[in-house]
């Protein structure tokens, strides 16, 4: 089978790995000009942990993992409110690492048979009885048996096959941003802890990485449907500029907009994840929001499930139906948990 996968994030790379292992011909395209940046810390747990075990990639994840021994909460002025020591008994079944590191491991696990064609996306497709012709943005056309959109919450493939994203996005009422900066002094001051600052309508997180780097995570309440800023740095300064502690230093060292992740906190809810010979996987169809902490894990699990159903060899339509039947109940439960968590995610108030 020849499969065109659009999107070289966690879901797309994992799916390509499984398809390649099963002997399929994979065309893997990614609209971004190169691999994604460091991103933010994520936990690989539950079904995602089990998936990387079966991929035999767990040692590589553990080599890039880091552990934070303490969680420290601060008031808006920077004073310490609470401290918690991480002594969770299930820590041996969880791997915490940066999103970019996980994607790098998945990319490195692919063979040379499935190179990522960066700077290339899907322009359109035409479906015929036994396949599709997929028009790419570089002017080429790929003939495939299946097109899979693994291109994230703002999926181009989903828009082409199902319509405008507004029909499927559930805005949870927050905007979030993340970036990594180089600041050895701040990294040392954070020790071996994840620090969180809460104030009315806002939350800021900071934690140390290797090499004198600091990872940040900003979240603030925003009306559902509020437009995303053209320059995230200006918006971050506007919302968080009045806070104390190390926040002014973090804002001062904010990198260029291209290196800042900024988006709304949202879920994707769809009545169906496939149409004809087009299917979706990962955030394109099942975005949970960062509030669940399981988006990466479900992307890995969903990719494995889709590949597993295709492996049975009884046709694309039957495989896609079973894939959705298998994964949707878990996604539905986790999305409900995410909506409940949204009520208390950031302190009430106006940022």
Automatic annotation (TrEMBL):
Domain annotation FAD-binding: ranges: 2-160, 266-334
Signal sequence bounds: none
Superkingdom, taxonomy of origin: Bacteria
GO molecular function annotation: FAD binding
InterPro entries: FAD-bd, FAD/NAD-bd_sf, FAD_aromatic-hydroxylase
UniProt xrefs under PANTHER family: OXIDOREDUCTASE-RELATED
Listed name of the protein: FAD-dependent oxidoreductase
Organism: Marinitenerispora sediminis
């Amino acid at each position: 089978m020849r499969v065109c996968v659009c999107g070289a994030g966690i879901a797309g790379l994992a799916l390509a790995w499984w398809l390649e292992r099963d002997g399929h011909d994979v065309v893997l395209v990614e609209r971004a000009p190169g691999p994604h940046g460091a991103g933010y810390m994520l936990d690989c747990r539950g079904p995602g942990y089990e998936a990387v075990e079966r991929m035999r990639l767990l040692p590589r994840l553990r080599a890039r993992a880091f552990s934070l021994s303490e969680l420290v909460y601060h008031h808006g002025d920077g004073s310490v409110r609470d401290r918690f020591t991480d002594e969770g008994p299930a820590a041996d079944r969880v791997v915490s690492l940066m999103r970019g590191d996980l994607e790098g491991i998945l990319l490195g696990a692919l063979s040379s048979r499935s190179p990522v064609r960066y700077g290339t996306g899907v322009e359109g497709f035409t479906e015929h009885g036994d396949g599709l012709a997929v028009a790419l943005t570089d002017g080429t056309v790929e003939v495939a048996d299946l097109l899979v959109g693994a291109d994230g919450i703002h999926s181009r493939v989903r828009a082409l096959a199902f319509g405008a994203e507004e029909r499927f996005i559930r805005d949870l009422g927050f905007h979030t941003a993340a970036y990594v900066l180089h600041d050895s002094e701040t990294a040392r001051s954070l020790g071996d802890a994840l620090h969180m600052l809460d104030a009315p309508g806002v939350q800021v997180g900071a934690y140390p990485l290797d090499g004198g780097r600091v990872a940040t995570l900003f979240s603030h309440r925003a009306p559902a449907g509020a437009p995303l800023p053209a320059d995230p740095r200006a918006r971050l300064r506007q919302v968080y500029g009045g806070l104390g502690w190390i926040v002014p230093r973090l804002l001062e060292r904010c990198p260029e907009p291209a290196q800042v992740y900024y988006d709304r906190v949202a879920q994707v809810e769809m009545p169906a994840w496939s149409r004809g010979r087009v299917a979706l996987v990962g955030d394109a169809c099942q975005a949970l929001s960062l509030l669940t902490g399981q988006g990466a894990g479900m992307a890995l699990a969903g990719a494995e499930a889709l590949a597993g159903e295709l492996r049975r060899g009884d046709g694309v339509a039957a495989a896609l139906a079973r894939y959705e039947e298998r994964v949707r109940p878990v996604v539905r439960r986790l999305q409900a948990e995410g909506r409940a968590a949204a009520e208390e995610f950031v302190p009430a108030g106006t940022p």
